[in-house]
Specification:
Strand content: 35-45%
Radius of gyration: 25 Å
Largest sheet: 5 strands, antiparallel
Number of strands: 14
Distance between the termini: 69 Å
CATH topology of the largest domain: Immunoglobulin-like
Shape: elongated
Order of helices and strands: EEHHEEEEEEEEHEEEE
CATH architecture of the largest domain: Sandwich
Structural class: mainly beta
Length: 181
């Protein structure tokens, strides 16, 4: 029996006809598609159909399932955006696999020797996140999110040292991610 060439995205493998009968042997040789699964909770089913000399061939056990579990949100980055003498914005980028959020918490720390009258702010994101994640515009972004929280300050902005941000959904709270002023 001859050998047949299978071309993958980034690899090439030439299996024998016997190897074509078993998907596990093909994958064991390092041939297989690279799959980027994203960050939306759910189940992905992959079914492999090969072509041998132009004839479709479905190897036994050629179906694979990938499960993306629901999890607490992740904060990828926090930055201080636009600023003026009396205002600033905190920009948050992250994702939430169930495509829902309930809260954002921002905890401010003063510079050494300073103090702040209020250090923690929590904002309800329930209805806002539901509106966003149910919109057609959000589909292309999966569970990715960007939140910009504006603040107006009475007093001296130079007293602010850093802000730590966490996000919460039904699965739990993210780890805090900080940005310095």
């Amino acid at each position: 029996m001859g050998q047949h060439r299978i071309q993958g995205v980034s690899d090439e493998f030439i299996p024998s006809i016997d190897q074509l009968a078993d998907l596990d042997s093909i994958l064991a040789e390092g041939f297989g598609p690279e799959v980027q699964v994203g960050t939306v909770a759910g189940i992905i089913t992959l079914n492999m159909v090969l072509s041998v000399e132009g004839v479709p061939f479905t190897p036994p056990n050629s179906s694979r399932t990938i499960t993306i579990n629901r999890s607490s949100p992740r904060v990828s980055s926090v930055s201080i955006g636009a600023r003026s003498d009396s205002s600033f914005e905190v920009s948050i980028i992250g994702y939430s696999t169930p495509r829902s959020l309930s809260q954002v918490t921002l905890r401010f720390t003063p510079k050494p020797g300073g103090d702040l009258p209020t250090t923690t702010f929590s904002l309800d994101l329930g209805s806002t996140s539901t509106t966003w994640y149910q919109s057609l515009s959000s589909i292309q972004y999966g569970s990715l999110l960007k939140i910009v929280v504006p603040f107006t300050v009475q007093g001296d902005l130079s007293r602010l040292g850093s802000v730590a941000v966490s996000l919460t959904n039904r699965e739990g709270a993210s780890q805090e991610v900080s940005a310095n002023f």
